[in-house]
Amino acid sequence: MSKTKKSYLPLKTTSHLRRTMNKHYLLARYHRWWGRPLKRPLAWVTSGAPVELLRVFNIFTVYPENYGAVCGTARVAQELCQEAENRGYSQDLCSYARSNLGVVYAPKGAPAGGLPAPDLLVACNNICGTVLKWYEELARHYRVPLFVIDTPFVTEAGEPPEHAVRYVLEQFREMTAGLEKLTGRQFQPGALEKTLALSQEAVGLWREIRNLCRTRPSPLNIPDMFLHLAPIVVMRGTEEAVGYYRRLLSEVQERVRRGQAAVAGEKHRLLWDNIAIWYRLFGFFKMFSERGACFVVDTYAGGWTVEILPGDPLESLARTYTGIFLNQGIDYRAQDIVKLIKEFGVDGFVMHSNRSCKPYSLVQEEIRRRVMAAAGVPGLLIEADMADPRAYAEEQVRTRVQAFLEALPA
Amino acid sequence: MDHWRDLIAGTGMEKLAAAAELPYRAWSEQFPGGRPFAYFCSYWPEELTMAFGWEPVRIFPPAKAGTPARLPTYCCSVARGCLEQGERGDLPFRETGFVHTCDTMQCLSQIWRYAVTDVTVSFVPPVTLNAPGALRYCAAELERIGRQLERLSGRAFHPDDLRRAIALNNRVRGLVQRLEELRPHLPAALVARLERTAQVVPRSLYAKALEEILPVLPKRAGEEAENRRGKNRLRRVLISGAVLENEEIPGLLAELGVGVAADDTCTGYRHFAGLVEETGDLFEALAARILQRPPCPCRHQGLAARRDYLLELARSRGAEAVILILRKYCDPHAWDAVSLAQGLRAAGLPVYVLELEGASPGGQEKTRLQAFLECL
């Protein structure tokens, strides 16, 4: 059997990523040994929650959504989802949530031995309504305090209205008081400013890395971005995240200097919309890379490139976390994709209609139509699920991908 | 099965109740001179629309499941059915009001602008109803959409118009409360139809017609109510769920010899519960009612609010069991169903989770429901 030529160039920093994330999950796993003596409660947090506020109180954070992606990549999500389904949760619910509940009920066999029980839960509904219901279930199960941040949906593209910002700000203030009580620590505005600066720095580095993919050929393909997204999600606001992204930036800059392509013989430059198909992360994108198609940009990893607005730290947090892209309508998202297509020199785009993520997916067909009309590039919609492989029909997807790539201009 | 129609035959309500099942295209013909304003969710502030001269008309999905190209198949039949109706041109309403209830409605409101009409107004009430500042935020949000409605209507806002609209809606709510008191003596399908009718026809006509029939309904239903006394008394259940666009579920329950003690669907009594203060800051009054409404799975009011509410409702109305109606792909209700069923069962109430594609149960659902009811 002849050895096939590799069409895809992996990053050296990936081994550092493994070490970084292993350390994070090890710390989480053994939190019960060090958390209490150091008075550092453990919080389960949704990916869109203002983690900077928790860092100020020295709270250790764990992200069940990130862990859901880990379960998806490790291909154990289906069994975990079924554990939740056996307890009555519908198969139509979000697979991150179902696999997380599966871990809660039956952690045996889960990556890193499952997640440690939380001391508190923090849910922010700026990404979806599901997180609220999911965390309500967790709060019932663990009987720990649940902090909910309600960030009103932004109906008109752009800045959230002032009354919505004031409302979120009031909730932040109440949460701050609640965290003071829970941790016995006083809120220090200076500490928040410092954490925000670290967060801002990591986000800036991540943005710079992403922007380097405007180069031809692109130094990264989107699976790289999906993998290296983990630290910005789980460690945002820490020195460690800043150090990590400095290292990654340096490697990507080196690739650009050398003219190294993530995908050998880059022929087509594509945009990806939605969360990854974790259980087929490399297999799926290989269908593209072996035909010289590189995903140079996406909308999901871009969710963590948003700069925290200047001004009063709490108010800036309120404004920034309310205005994130998943809390905005079609106009905002379509304009964003059109802008990315122009800036990154994109020839076509692929949208993952993700059964687990309704706010991301239900509007995609309308966005696809609008983007195609505005940017003049073709868009493909494929249906799957981010973590549950039962919703993925490989052959059907392959046929659609082939037809799409054949239709792209040479 | 439809003998409940006889109870309103020859009354002013007969025509109104019939209008609730006519295609929306017939609305203007049925109510000439009325300016319809389409809306979707029971959190929509009907009074505010009426203050600008519109008649709020709630949009329900058609009987046949829709398959609009703009929505994937893993989306609930309410959104798919309504969008298909709109795309087909079967909703002749220029203005449409949306409420941010669930992720699906949030998405539908966005698609609607391009697929059906670009004259949409989106109301985003607080999700955490007991959050600090929720009342202030909600009142400010109502004022925002009030300004939008003012621009759309071309009619200046006047507090007296809003006060009159609130008074009329309160009158309807009061009448529906009286209808609920008569519920034990009336066919459940009739009550469901009367409550749904209130959401699609001009409110002043409705109030007048309901006022007329309320005193005579018990008499008209007398024989049936008499038959239900003593050992023939109907077993009664509480139903809870989202939108019911027809009366087939209460009809089927009646067929199985079971009455509806309380209807906690969002087209049923939940739509009418609570009055709005008619004095003071009217926007704050509207907001206060929104915050105090019976628990809906799309809102957060703590972890036990809905269970406690349903337990109390079941006890006060003498329900022997609860049927949680779950529409396929409705995430908020699917989430609630697990812990809610556990909590209600733990309190001694048998619970059946009835999952349906729409609001029309088929043979299989009937058999399952029958088996459950026989076990009571």
Task: Describe the 3D structure.
The complex is a heterodimer of chains A (410) and B (376). Chain A is of the alpha/beta class. In chain A, 51% of the residues lie in helices and 10% in strands. In chain A, strand 1, helix 3 and strand 2 form a beta-alpha-beta unit. The mean pLDDT of chain B is 94. Chain B has 376 residues and is an alpha/beta fold. The two termini of chain B are 23 Å apart. Chains A and B meet through helix 7, helix 8, helix 16 and helix 17 of A and helix 5, helix 6 and helix 15 of B.
What are the defining features of this structure?
heterodimer; A: 410 residues; alpha/beta; 4-stranded parallel sheet; 18 helices; 8 strands; 51% helix; globular; B: 376 residues; 12% strand
Brief digest:
By secondary structure, chain A is α/β, with parallel strands linked by helices. Chain A has 18 helices and eight strands. In chain A, helix 4 (64-73) crosses helix 6 (95-105) and helix 15 (330-343) packs across helix 17.
Supply the helix-strand structural class of chain B: alpha/beta
Residue runs with pLDDT of under 50 for 5 or more positions of chain A: none
Q: Calculate Rg of chain B over CA atoms.
A: 20 Å
What ranges of chain B have pLDDT less than 50 throughout 5 or more consecutive residues?
none
User: Largest beta sheet of chain B: what is the strand line-up?
Assistant: 2-1-3-4
By DSSP, the count of extended strands of chain A is 8
Residue share in β-strands of chain A: 5-15%
User: Helix share of residues of chain A?
Assistant: 40-55%
> What would the principal axes of the Cα set say about the shape of chain B?
globular
